[in-house]
Amino acid sequence: MHAQPVALITGANQGIGLQIAKDLAANGYTVLLGSRSPQKGETAAQSIGAAAHAVQLDVTQPDSIAAAAAHIRQTFGRLDVLVNNAGIAEAGQPGRSGEEIRRDSHASIASLDEVRAVFETNVFGVIAITQALLPLLREAPAARIVNVSSPLGSLTLNADPAFPYRQAYSVVYAASKTALNAVTLAFAIDLEQTNIKVNVASPGSTKTAMNPAGTDTVEQGAHYLVRVVLDADEPTGTFTGPGGALPW
Question: Its family (predicted)?
């Protein structure tokens, strides 16, 4: 068995996922960078150093998930942390502006094909990779699953007419984060008598390729998510952000 604790971060070849990997490596973890592209994954791992390893992983493809789980067991023999960071904001026709994406996401006109594609990554992919890696996580002395969400997924916040981002609530990205929150709570309840804590957390308004209007750096966004991973006192089944607890 690998001597150091091992963490897998999905969607880790860039942005917040890559920064989470860097931060966990700095805290003594061997980090596995899940990436659909092996080449991009290898480049990202090399930017971290010897503690980082690329793992080809497409969370929408069962064969890729099974191969990644087998590789982790055979190569490292353990998994202590799973950060489900991989996600997409839209899957419609390329070249649309941000305003067009928001308009096309309205519940009255959204394409079901786009809804399905976004849920495939943001919701079903999380369930699939988590289920595949649970045998390894169950063997860890104190395992942690952290799913990356957003206040946009909060039903409580969006039900308040005063919530400034209410008009951005859609059946595409925002609803996928609502579903992810529900999935997280379901796993937390299912596993609450085990050694595995399951939490959902928001990095805040982080500027990334998916969120160019963000106000925080990836270092700031990743810092909070890593804190959730490392905080041994954080209870299971919480939804939090940089400012503290978030309403479901």
Answer: Belongs to the short-chain dehydrogenases/reductases (SDR) family.
Other Cβ atoms within 10 Å of 247 Cβ, number: 12
Specify the pLDDT at position 207.
46
- pTM here is 0.93
Mean pLDDT by 10 residues, the chain (248 residues): 93 94 97 97 98 98 98 98 94 62 80 96 98 98 97 96 93 96 98 98 66 63 91 96 94
Nearest alpha carbon to residue 210 among 158, 248, 173: 173
236 domain residue, yes or no: yes
Number of neighbours of residue 195 by Cβ within 10 angstroms = 13
pLDDT score at 1:
75
The residues with which 239 forms a beta bridge, in sequence order, are 200
Question: E-strand spans in the chain?
Answer: 6-9, 30-35, 52-56, 81-84, 143-148, 196-201, 239-241, 244-245
Whether the CB-CB separation of 180 and 123 falls below 8 Å is answered with: yes
Residue 206 falls inside a structural domain: yes
Structural domain containing residue 171: 6-245
Burial pattern 33-48, b for ≥16 Cβ within 10 A else e, equals bbbbeeebbbebbeeb
Question: Does 145 reside within a domain?
Answer: yes
- Assigned token pair, 138: 């169950």
Strand partners, 244: 241
Q: What was the pLDDT predicted at 54?
A: 98
What amino acid positions are annotated as catalytic residues?
Answer: 173, 177
**Domain tally, the chain:** 1
Does residue 1 belong to any structural domain of this protein?
Answer: no
